Amino acid sequence: QVQFVESGGGLVQPGGSLRLSCAASGFTFSTYDMNWYRQYPGKGRDFIASISSSGESTDYADSAKGRFTISRDNAKNTVYLQMNNLKPEDTAVYLCNAPGQFGNSWVRFRWGLGTQVTVSS
Question: I need a surface site. Which of 33, 42, 87, 112 has the fewest CB within 10 A?
């Protein structure tokens, strides 16, 4: 059974940083591209970043470029999102999943619970 467990969220002041983790299980992680998304209350999920199965290629939404960095550790079945210079508009629930193809794409598996990020002074 595929499972995603996101962690690392919390309350941070504007300009601060957080590193999110997503531990995946139930599939051969190293052979799948992986994405991060975020969801605002009452709205759909927005694509943030994508990383290829090998980790060699990455892609970002305009809102994430220059501030967020996606990475992965295939030995740990984990994908990360380093978020710097956080803004109040980054406040959302952050989730990961495997896309149908690299980049902003439909997702393959059932969603996890996500991790809440709150940016506020």
Answer: 42
**Residue 95: Cβ within 10 Å count:** 22
Q: What is the pLDDT of residues 75-108, one digit of tens each?
A: 999 999 999 999 999 999 999 999 999 999 899 9
Distance (Å) of CA 93 to CA 20, 37, 42, 52, 97: 11, 8, 11, 23, 13
Maximum distance among all Cα pairs of the chain, rounded to whole angstroms: 41
CA pair distance 44, 96, nearest whole angstrom: 14
Model confidence pLDDT, tens digit, residues 37-72: 999 989 999 999 999 999 999 999 999 999 999 999
**13's tokens:** 């002041």
26: left (phi over 0), alpha (psi -120 to 50) or beta: left
